[in-house]
Amino acid sequence: MDSCDSFLLRILAACPPLSPAEVRQVEDWWHAERSPAEGLAAFLIRQGVFNREALKTVEFMERGYVTFSDARHLFTMQGQDRARNRLKSASGRPVLTSSWSSSHLPASAAENPEEALERTERKPVMHGVLAVQSSSQQRLEKRATALQAGATLGKCLLTAEIGRGGSGVVFRGYHLGLNIPVAVKVLLLDAVQDHDSACEQLRQEARLLAQLNHANIVRVLDFEDDATHPYLVLEYVDGVSLSDLIRQSGRLRGDRAARVILQVAQALDAAHCLGIVHRDVKPANILITRDGSAKLADLGLAVVIDSRTGTLRDGEAMAGTVAYMPPEQALQTNPVDHRSDIYALGATFYHAVTGQMPFTGRTRSEVIKKHARETPVPPSHLVADLDPAISAVICRMLAKDPSQRYSDHQELIAALTRIETRSGHSIALPLAGSAAESPSQDAGDSVSRVRSIWRSLVRRFRATS
Fold this sequence. Notes:
Blueprint lengths: L2 H12 L5 H14 L6 H7 L7 H9 L16 H11 L17 H5 L1 H10 L2 E2 L2 E2 L4 H9 L8 E2 L2 E9 L3 E8 L4 E8 L7 H17 L8 E5 L6 E5 L3 E3 H8 L4 H20 L2 E2 L8 E4 L4 E3 L6 E2 L22 H5 L6 H17 L9 H10 L5 H4 L5 H10 L11 H15 L19 H22 L1
Antiparallel strand pairs: 1-2, 3-4, 4-5, 5-6, 6-8, 7-8, 9-11, 10-13, 11-12
Helix pairs in contact: 11-13, 11-17, 13-16, 16-17
């Protein structure tokens, strides 16, 4: 049993969605039926007990990147009941159901809870509230069935769908010419009313990304203006989004979150040097690699600021994600510039260290009004052991008046570096690298390879922390 397996058993025992006796039975089950060299987390994922992100979450927790977690977040919707069914069926004892029993779910979810969970996870999120999936989006999913895992788009073999939005879908793929894993972002023309405008926005994203050669920005590898499926080929980041990490784990430790935010600030500074404003900085657009490096993604709403006037060149209307949107961007009261991205990054920083957004509401307009008029509760009031200096940085980033925020990303970077220097830890992290992965690779071998790589990275991380 390696350290990760022992760590996971301690988590289950300390925050028990299962009883201590059941945890011991799970360990016996794993020893009896696991594949060679298969770890406990990988085994429970294969059995449908843990969700697909559990292995990465446990690794992040073991290395100290996440310090607060509810073990229930590791389970699938019916994972606890599946485990109990398996453990108790042999003894003939009645099966106990968890608080997530299908009796507490809608009829559609009770019939197939896994599919219900997938549908829930893919619903668009606005101001912290899940939006109702529209009938047009449901029709879109039906029309998109022709573009599925296993299809070839250009030189890319699509291996799995990894994300879906209102107008597009992202696949993990394999570039048959370069022999590397890639992410393929496909525009679904059936989902948009103005095809020309949507295609131009994707083209603009490709051109902006092509100008940005930075370790903390997802690289673009190709763009194809295909008449049926326009698409971008992007660097594949083997990790999790900050949004998923927060959702799985509750919140991040202050110093770890500061490292992520610093790297994103460096990415935004590189963009600012080219006059680019991201306009949609949020946890879902920040990808975390296995070594803790952060990469900024999705420049679909990015715009170029006119260096002479400091205003948007195209007269863009309000765009972005309300939960992290600065007041001037939402209300269009002041020109949008790099300080708008600083505000959105501050809202992201707030969410990462507290586990909650600065403002929530029932409607978009309610959240916008709070961003414009209300002062968020200081993060240090929500997290008792949070470094007051981190709380102060976040509060300044979230100032209503852009002139009261950090004047530029360099000033923000300096503030975060001072925090790290005072804490006695180096702010630098190793550069991220994507591990190549064959599309025909066996899932068990892939998990074993991932675990081996992560163990070596954990040792490196501990040695430098």
